[in-house]
Each structure stands twice: as structure tokens, then as C-alpha cells.
Specification:
Blueprint (H helix, E strand, L loop, with lengths): L2 H7 L2 E2 L4 H9 L5 H8 L1 H14 L3 E3 L12 H18 L5 E6 L10 H13 L5 E7 L5 H11 L4 E6 L13 H9 L6 E9 H11 L6 E6 L4 E3 L2 E3 L4 H13 L2 E4 L7 H10 L24 H6 L6 E5 L9 H12 L4 E4 L11 H12 L3 E6 L2 E2 L1 H13 L4 E5 L15 E2 L3 H14 L6 E6 L6 H14 L3 E6 L3 H13 L3 E6 L5 H10 L7 H5 L6 H19 L5 E5 L5 H13 L4
Parallel strand pairs: 1-10, 2-3, 3-4, 4-5, 5-6, 6-7, 7-10, 11-12, 11-20, 12-13, 13-15, 14-16, 15-17, 17-18, 18-19, 19-20
Antiparallel strand pairs: 8-9
Helix pairs in contact: 3-4, 3-5, 4-5, 4-11, 6-7, 9-10, 10-11, 13-22, 16-17, 21-22
């Protein structure tokens, strides 16, 4: 029977977690699973048959992790061919076979669409017509892949399935509701849903948040949340409980069901039995608890939007140790100069300092100042990032600056590992999603713009992408050359968001040479360096004030405010510069 005809009258029950079940039966790591298509085909076939005997109607090929970024092309072809042959041998006459395609890691030097097309071609050449594109955290290249499949075989049946956490976000910061709605609108996608990361009970909640769709919905939860024993993830759920929740998912509108990690044939057998009971489809989904917006002032954003003045942001690096006295003294000095916001770097150049978000909360609570913590993508995974954002929101912090973050130096990598669940654009989109769905008071999202880049138009393209993902404003790198001035003018013409032009006082010739050589993204013009020849400390500070004012005048028409970076904690110098700015009517 055609799968579309089947789904008009029946639910479709898939098998369970091949990788985890294979590892359990053979005491191996999950990576061995796909290679078993060649090394242990009888065991793979036995697992397929066990799931079919348990009552499933659809089988996934054992091909989740097969792609050219993980193994040579010839091995990919051989493993996929073997997997399809094994699944066909195991299948019954009424079994629907699905080609399984897992996520392919994005790499700058590879054409991601081409990598997906290669895997698709391997299946199509073997006569496979049904595709499960599963466990993805975004739809990057997936709609293009679906279009390619339908171009090659218009009758192909395609399911897109995303891994989603209980809060409704994927590890790439995408909301499952948005991903499902986009799939619903794609004529090349036949069904959409969720798998992995989440249990059946939490998928019930997520399904209600997604709401009814005009295409079939697929759900393939994990057996439970994992525990680690002997360096292996183990799942200790109860098949009966799992099956009861799967029946609820069916009643909530999911017509394609199955299991992911930890779901053995016992889970599928229990689910098959539970689905024998009549369905009670709820045509109206229960109302979700609505997010109640809270009105809370954001003084800095108000100033930034005021056409009659320039906002002043000053960066003050947090201390390297636990003594905060110098930092707080400097902050008080800046407050006395009517600075609108203090920005706080997040472990700049990957060196440990006091946490920027904790310092922002301290400034806000103790001094009543607006603070803009920098948030890097380097040191926190998805859970830690969301937890931090919730805490900042609860503490009254209304603005965050999102940056990718400097990588940890090579010599330290064996001891300290970088964590990059996001790049800055994805983190911006994630925060935007939290603003829309979770946070009572949304953040204004700031991003970085490098006006010193050699190919500045590439930076503008990145900045536009940041705006599309939700960035409201940009802080630029220091403007210390005429090229940077011209680039900032171009940014003003191109971008929609607010702009704060970077001003970094140069205090000596040595300081200028250091910035040019040691700090990424900073470019001090040779003529500026020449002005510091033979200047002592006092003359260096005078030049710092003069040159900062010169560049402020040149960029005034291109910016909504100034972003001053404090050199060596010298807040007194920043105070002198601000006095100069005010005397000249620059702010």
C-alpha cells in the first residue's frame, strides 16, 4: 500500500533506537553501529527483525551517521548499500523502508548541500523512495535537500525531524514551532516532527505548543533521560509508561510514531499494543500559559533612540582576581560622568576574569547603573546559556552583547576545551526566540561590527545576517584610521540597527604597536602612531584625548552613540575624554 494512503486511515509505527540497542546487545560504543552493516550484518538484520516482531510497520536504515565528512566516499557507498540490503532482507511485505539521513556538520570548506545530495543519490540509486531526515537542530540545507529529492523522484515521501529540548529549542537555538511551520509551508516536505533529546511526556507538551499542522506530525522520543555508566549512556525508562505517553501523543495529533535513543523492541511492542485502543483526537489544543509581558524601563535603549543626543557606552574589563574594589571605584567615577551604560567583556582573549554577567548584576543592583554584559559562544553550552539569560532577565539586565569569542590559545587546549554550541548569529536568533516565547521582558540584542576588516563588505553581509536573526544594534571595533571612518559611513547606509562607534584611546607609541600586533580587529593608522614619537605619559594622555575627539567628530553623523574602551583601567582618562566631548558638543 502507498504510504500516503496508509496514513489517511492508520498511524505509522516506526522502530526504535538502533544505535543504542546495538550497543546494548554487543557492548560497544554507538559509533560502531553503522560499520556493523559490513562487519556484523547478521546482528543488524536481527535487530530489524526484532523491531518488526514487536509490531512496527516502518524500518529506518542503519545509516544515521554515514556521510563523506565522517568517512571516505567509497565507504559511504558500501555502507549505505549494505544497510539497504539488510533492511530489505528483514522487511515484511507490508513494511515501509525509510532511508535515514542524520545531520552533516557544517564546515567552511565544504558545500553542505552537495554533501546531502551525495547521500541522497546513494539511496536513490538503490531504489529507495522514503526518507527520514532526522535529529537536526536547524533546517539548514534541509529544504533544499527535500527539493532535490522530489526533483529526482516526485513520489518520494520525506519526513523532517528535529532534535529539541523540553523548553522547545534545538541545540542551534531554533524554536521547534518555527521549524515545523516552515516545513508545513514547504510543498516538498510530507511530514515533520521531533526525535531524540526529549522524552515522550515532554513531547506531549511540545506538540501542544506547536499546534495542529496541515501535514502529518512525527514523534520519536527517547526512552528516558540518560545516565552514564561505564562511559556509556544508559536509558532506564519503563516501556509501559513510554507506551502510555505515546498513545497520548497519538491522541494529540501525531500520526507517525516511533522511538529514538534507548527504545528497545520492548518499548515498540508496548507502544504497538497501546495504539490498538481507539484514538481520541483532540481537535482543539488546550490553551498554553501565555507569556505575561512586564513593563520595565530600559534607560540605555531610550537614550540610544533619542535623536537629540549621543549615547555613551564605556567598556570596563572585569578584574582577573576576586578583588573588585578597583573595578567598582572606576564604575563610580564613570557614573559621576553620566555614562549611560558600562559594557563588560566576557573573559577577553580567552583569559579568565570575573564573570561579566555577575559583574553586570552587581553594577545594576549596587550602583543603579545600566550594564551591557558581553556573552561569548565559547564557554557555555545551550543549557548554561539559557540559564544565564534567565538569571540576567530576573536581575533586571535588559541588554546583552553577543560575540563569538576569542578561541582558547593552542597551548591550553589539552587542559581547557572550548564549547561552541553557537556562533554569534545563531546565539542572537536563540535569544530572539527566548524574547518571543519565554522571557517576560525581552533583551535588546547588541552585536559586534569590525570596521577594520580588510574586506569590509563581508563584515556587512555578516552584520545583515545578524540583523535578520534579531540583532538590534552594533558596537564597532575602534575607529583609528580613515578607512575605518569610511567603513562606518557605509555601515550607516547599509544597516538598519543602531550604531555605537568604537573609540579606543591610544596612550603611547608602544600601546599602538601592541594593539596593531597583538589584538585582533584593531588597526591603528601609521600617522597616528607617528604622533606618539617621544611622547611621555602626560603627553600621551593629551594625545589620547585629542585623537579620540578627532575621530568622534568624523563619525558623529554615522553613529547613534560612542563606545569607549578603557585602557588599562584608566577611568580618569575616559572622564577627561568625556569632558572634551561635552565641551565640543559631541554628546
Amino acid at each position: 500500500m502507498d504510504i500516503r494512503s496508509w496514513l489517511k486511515e492508520h498511524t505509522l509505527l516506526f522502530d526504535g533506537g538502533m544505535s543504542t540497542y546495538y550497543a546494548e546487545r554487543n557492548n560497544t560504543a554507538g559509533d560502531a553501529c553503522e560499520w556493523a552493516n559490513l562487519s556484523n550484518p547478521k546482528e543488524v538484520e536481527a535487530i530489524h527483525r526484532a523491531y518488526l516482531e514487536a509490531g512496527c510497520r516502518a524500518l529506518k536504515t542503519n545509516t544515521y551517521g554515514i556521510n563523506r565528512l565522517r568517512m571516505p566516499e567509497a565507504d559511504c557507498k558500501a555502507l549505505i548499500r549494505a544497510a539497504c540490503e539488510i533492511a530489505r532482507r528483514a522487511a515484511k511485505e507490508e513494511t515501509f523502508l525509510f532511508s535515514t539521513i542524520g545531520p552533516i556538520e557544517e564546515q567552511d570548506d565544504r558545500d553542505l548541500e552537495a554533501e546531502y545530495r551525495f547521500v541522497v543519490d546513494c539511496f536513490l540509486e538503490l531504489g529507495m523512495r522514503n526518507f527520514l531526515i532526522e535529529t537536526h537542530s536547524s533546517d539548514l540545507c534541509l529544504h533544499e535537500t527535500a527539493a532535490y529529492i522530489k526533483e529526482r523522484d516526485p513520489e518520494a515521501f520525506i519526513i523532517l525531524s528535529f532534535n529539541v529540548q523540553p523548553d522547545g529549542f534545538t541545540t542551534a537555538g531554533r524554536m521547534i514551532r518555527d521549524l515545523c511551520k516552515a516545513a508545513e509551508e514547504d510543498p516538498n516536505v510530507d511530514a515533520v516532527g521531533m526525535n531524540c533529546m526529549t522524552t515522550a511526556r515532554h513531547m506531549v507538551d511540545l506538540l501542544r505548543k506547536i499546534g495542529p499542522l496541515n501535514i502529518p506530525i512525527s514523534v520519536m522520543p527517547n526512552a528516558s533521560y540518560p545516565t552514564v555508566r561505564g562511559n556509556r549512556s544508559c536509558y532506564d525508562g519503563d516501556p509501559g509508561y513510554f507506551a502510555a505517553q505515546m498513545a497520548v501523543l497519538r491522541d494529540e495529533g501525531a500520526w507517525i510514531l516511533g522511538g529514538c535513543c534507548g527504545t528497545t523492541p520492548a518499548y515498540i511492542a508496548a507502544t504497538s499494543k497501546a495504539l490498538e485502543s481507539p484514538a481520541h483526537i483532540r481537535m482543539e489544543y488546550p490553551l498554553q500559559r501565555e507569556k505575561i509581558p512586564q513593563t520595565r524601563p530600559n534607560p540605555f535603549w531610550d537614550v540610544l533612540c533619542d535623536p537629540d543626543r549621543k549615547a555613551i557606552a564605556v567598556e570596563l574589563d572585569p578584574p582577573e582576581g576576586a578583588d573588585l574594589s578597583k573595578f567598582m571605584t572606576g564604575a563610580r567615577e564613570l557614573r559621576a560622568k553620566d555614562v549611560d551604560i558600562i559594557t563588560i567583556a566576557d573573559c577577553p582573549v580567552a583569559r579568565v576574569r570575573v564573570d561579566s554577567s555577575l559583574m553586570a548584576c552587581k553594577l545594576h543592583r549596587e550602583l543603579g547603573m545600566s550594564a551591557l554584559p558581553h556573552m561569548t559562544c565559547r564557554d557555555r553550552n545551550l543549557n548554561a546559556t539559557q540559564a544565564l539569560l534567565l538569571g540576567l532577565c530576573a536581575e533586571g539586565i535588559g541588554n546583552v552583547l553577543v560575540v563569538t569569542g576569542d578561541p582558547i590559545p593552542n597551548a591550553s587546549r589539552d587542559e581547557v576545551k572550548s564549547v561552541y554550541n553557537f556562533n554569534s548569529r545563531r546565539l542572537i536568533r536563540y535569544i530572539k526566540g527566548l524574547n518571543e516565547a519565554v522571557l517576560p521582558t525581552p533583551f535588546h540584542i547588541f552585536a559586534a561590527l569590525n570596521v577594520n576588516a580588510r574586506n569590509f563588505r563581508i563584515q556587512l553581509d555578516i552584520a545583515r545576517a545578524k540583523e535578520e536573526n534579531g540583532a538590534d544594534a552594533f558596537l564597532t571595533q575602534p575607529v583609528l584610521s580613515q578607512q575605518a571612518v569610511e567603513n562606518l559611513k557605509l555601515a550607516r547606509e547599509t544597516l538598519k540597527g543602531k550604531l555605537l562607534g568604537g573609540i579606543m584611546p591610544v596612550v603611547s607609541r608602544r600601546n599602538a604597536l601592541f594593539m596593531n600586533s597583538e589584538i585582533s580587529g584593531i588597526s591603528v593608522a601609521p600617522e597616528i602612531i607617528a604622533r606618539y614619537e617621544n611622547a611621555d605619559r602626560a603627553r600621551g594622555e593629551e594625545l589620547a584625548v585629542e585623537i579620540s575627539a578627532e575621530f568622534a567628530r568624523q563619525i558623529a553623523d554615522s553613529v547613534d552613540g560612542y563606545y569607549l574602551m578603557t585602557p588599562f583601567g584608566r577611568t580618569g582618562l575616559i572622564a577627561r575624554i568625556l569632558d572634551c566631548f561635552r565641551a565640543e558638543g559631541l554628546v
